[in-house]
């Protein structure tokens, strides 16, 4: 229980960081922030930090090797009721979009490996998850999630396109993922 309070407090403190990749221009917001969803225009997106580490099932993964694909990153914990509620919607969105160059990656935080593995087995999660008990990867984001679950959509150039600070449903997430997947990557990966 203390770990959960610590994580909640730490993530709330980190949430006070400005949206570095989403600045305002001529008095207009470059990023739309409505209903717990922050979406940045392509020319206002910041690069994602290094998202790499040990996989929950063993081995390692680095999101940098997914460049060229849209990457949907979901922060979750087996102890989190909204995470359980969104698990099927995430898996269904993954299955519906993976043929269009979309991949998913979970990041399990503040958890025990056996409980996290049981969660993935119970919900038949087929995409990989990094095991990050101290939440270091969440804290490394320029646009950090301040709630768990949180979902971050990276564009094909590895930049933060969307941050969702709430549990997702397939009917809300899939159109966002499809819209980002339909964007053309910038020449040489920069805009």
Automatic annotation (TrEMBL):
Domain of life, per lineage: Bacteria
A Pfam family: AhpC-TSA
Entry-linked SUPFAM superfamilies: Thioredoxin-like
Protein keywords: Cytochrome c-type biogenesis, Disulfide bond, Isomerase, Redox-active center, Signal, Signal-anchor, Transmembrane
The UniProt record lists the keyword Protein transport: no
InterPro entries the UniProt entry points to: AhpC/TSA (IPR000866), Thioredoxin-like_sf (IPR036249), Thioredoxin_CS (IPR017937), Thioredoxin_domain (IPR013766), Thioredoxin_ResA/DsbE_sf (IPR050553)
GO molecular function, one term: isomerase activity
GO biological process, one term: cytochrome complex assembly
GO CC field: cell envelope
Localisation per UniProt entry: Cell envelope
Signal peptide: 1-20
Principal place of residence: other
Record bears the keyword Transferase: no
Residue ranges constituting the Thioredoxin domain according to the UniProt record: 42-182
PANTHER family: THIOL:DISULFIDE INTERCHANGE PROTEIN DSBE
Name of the protein: Thiol-disulfide isomerase or thioredoxin
UniProt source species: Micromonospora echinofusca
């Amino acid at each position: 229980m203390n770990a959960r309070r610590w994580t909640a407090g730490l993530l709330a403190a980190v949430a006070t960081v400005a949206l570095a990749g989403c600045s305002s221009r001529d008095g207009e917001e470059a990023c739309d922030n409505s209903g717990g969803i922050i979406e940045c225009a392509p020319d206002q997106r910041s690069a994602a930090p290094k998202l790499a580490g040990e996989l929950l099932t063993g081995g390692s993964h680095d999101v940098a090797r997914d460049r060229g694909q849209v990457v949907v990153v979901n922060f979750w914990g087996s102890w989190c009721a909204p995470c359980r509620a969104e698990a099927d919607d995430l898996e269904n969105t993954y299955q519906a979009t993976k043929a269009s160059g979309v991949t998913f990656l979970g990041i399990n935080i503040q958890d025990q490996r056996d409980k996290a593995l049981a969660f993935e087995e119970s919900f038949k999660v087929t995409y990989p998850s990094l095991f990050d008990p101290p939440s270091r990867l969440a804290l490394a984001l320029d646009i950090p999630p301040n709630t768990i679950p949180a979902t971050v959509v990276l564009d094909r150039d590895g930049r933060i396109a969307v941050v969702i600070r709430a549990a997702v449903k397939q009917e809300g997430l899939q159109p966002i993922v499809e819209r980002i997947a339909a964007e053309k990557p910038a020449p040489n990966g920069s805009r």
